[in-house]
């Protein structure tokens, strides 16, 4: 639910987009469960060494699930872009009404705090970032959680700029949080957002499906 203290078509539109995003994510999970039940991923061969369809899996269901996952991942990517644009529009209307900073809620029900930009282009609190999100694989836990390439990490679980030493700290948090939500705070363009990621095994290696790079001090 989007927690702006205002009503209007922009907010209603974002609410509908979030509901659709939740539906897409649920269907992706369902299709991934088909692959898991057959003990295959997105890239495993469906034929045996002699070139015949494997008899240890349901080839038809696996092919259908893979096709649906690809289509759904594309739909998810598109709707996340629409949600981001919609949130920016709602936030702009909110600020223009003189309401100041506001809280929103993401699809997991956790608070997404969106802070307005200051005149120097940074967030009003201007917290320090310590790492940058690199490539994010489509359909990965990072992607589904809302992380985007070039997001600057301000908080990752218990880690922030004051206690950050190296990327190993983040890897340790991920490894010990499989299936558990991790609260992440990022700066994206001129806004500060809170997102929630849930590390888990998925179709590709890694538990998040994104690259996190230490930020080089300028």
Q: What would you say this structure looks like, in words?
A:
The protein is α+β, with helices and mostly antiparallel strands. It folds into two domains: 1-103, no CATH class; 115-218, PDZ domain (Pdz3 Domain), CATH 2.30.42. Helix content is 37%, strand content 18%. The chain contains four helices and eight strands; from the N terminus they run ααβββαββαβββ. Strands 3, 4, 5, 6, 7 and 8 form a six-stranded antiparallel sheet that branches. Strands 1-2 form a two-stranded antiparallel sheet. It starts with 8 loop residues before the first helix and ends with a strand.
Which keywords apply here?
218 residues; six-stranded antiparallel sheet; Pdz3 Domain; single chain; 2 domains; 26S proteasome non-ATPase regulatory subunit 9-like
Map the helices and strands.
Blueprint (H helix, E strand, L loop, with lengths): L8 H29 L21 H38 L5 E4 L5 E4 L16 E6 L4 H5 L6 E5 L2 E2 L7 H8 L6 E7 L2 E7 L12 E5 L4
Antiparallel strand pairs: 1-2, 3-4, 3-8, 4-5, 4-6, 6-7
Helix pairs in contact: 1-2
Q: Tell me the major beta sheet.
A: 6 strands, antiparallel
Give the overall form.
flat
Strand content: 15-25%
Q: Give the class from helix and strand content and strand pairing.
A: alpha+beta
Number of helices: 4
- Model regions low in confidence, pLDDT < 50 over at least 5 residues: 1-6, 98-125
Order of helices and strands: HHEEEHEEHEEE
Q: Give the helix level as a range of percent.
A: 25-40%
End-to-end Cα distance: 38 Å
CATH H level, superfamily name of the largest domain? PDZ domain
User: What fold name goes in the CATH topology slot of the largest domain?
Assistant: Pdz3 Domain
Pfam families: Nas2_N
GO cellular component, one term: cytoplasm
InterPro entries: Nas2_N (IPR040815), PDZ_sf (IPR036034), PSMD9 (IPR035269)
Keywords: Chaperone
């Amino acid at each position: 639910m989007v927690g702006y203290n205002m009503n209007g078509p922009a907010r209603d539109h974002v609410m509908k987009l979030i509901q659709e995003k939740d539906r897409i994510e649920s269907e992706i999970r369902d299709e991934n469960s088909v692959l898991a039940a057959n003990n295959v991923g997105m890239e495993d061969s469906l034929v045996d060494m002699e070139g015949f369809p494997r008899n240890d899996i349901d080839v038809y269901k696996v092919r259908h699930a893979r096709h649906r996952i690809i289509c759904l991942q594309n739909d998810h990517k598109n709707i996340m872009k629409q949600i981001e644009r919609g949130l920016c529009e709602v936030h702009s209307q909110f600020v223009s009404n003189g309401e100041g900073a506001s809280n929103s809620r993401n699809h997991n029900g956790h608070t997404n705090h969106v802070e307005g930009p200051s005149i120097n282009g940074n967030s009003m609190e201007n917290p320090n970032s310590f790492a940058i999100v690199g490539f994010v694989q489509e359909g990965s836990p990072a992607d589904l959680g809302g992380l985007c390439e070039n997001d600057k990490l301000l908080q990752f679980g218990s880690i922030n700029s004051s206690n950050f030493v190296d990327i190993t700290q983040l890897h340790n948090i991920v490894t010990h949080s499989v299936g558990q939500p991790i609260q992440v705070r990022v700066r994206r363009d001129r806004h500060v957002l809170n997102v929630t990621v849930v590390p888990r095994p998925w179709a590709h290696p890694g538990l998040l499906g994104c690259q996190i790079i230490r930020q080089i001090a300028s």
